[in-house]
Amino acid sequence: MSNEQSSIEQTIRDQISANNILLYMKGSPDQPQCGFSAQAVQCLMGCGQRFAYVDILANPEIRSTLPIVANWPTFPQLWIDGELVGGCDIITDLHNKGELKTMIDASAAAAPADQA
């Protein structure tokens, strides 16, 4: 592994640990750049809590390294409390069952005050 790749991996780990609810996506919540990212954002927004995001299109080194770190090949990727939840299908399924809001609310309630 190159120093550059290990540095990118550390950046990813730092992003995941610094944000209790984090979506790696194509584009931004205001302007998703693919249908799967748009659908994931709609599910998250429906939960009513703030979340962080990383635009992988603007960060090609994260886009190429995150699937290795996560052992998950596709985007978007939702991380809650440092754990990979999954991609669009899983996010949508959890949202439809009402489980995503429960997970998001619990994470937001446990977040340090400076993240609120």
TrEMBL record:
NCBIfam families: Grx4 family monothiol glutaredoxin. InterPro entries: Glutaredoxin (IPR002109), GRX_PICOT-like (IPR033658), Monothiol_GRX (IPR014434), Monothiol_GRX-rel (IPR004480), Thioredoxin-like_sf (IPR036249). Glutathione binds at K26, R63, F75, C88, D89. [2Fe-2S] cluster binds at C34. Belongs to the glutaredoxin family. Monothiol subfamily. GO terms for molecular function: 2 iron, 2 sulfur cluster binding; disulfide oxidoreductase activity; metal ion binding. Pfam families: Glutaredoxin. Keywords: 2Fe-2S, Iron, Iron-sulfur, Metal-binding, Redox-active center. This is Glutaredoxin. Residues 21-85 form the Glutaredoxin domain. PROSITE patterns: GLUTAREDOXIN_2. The keyword Iron-sulfur applies.
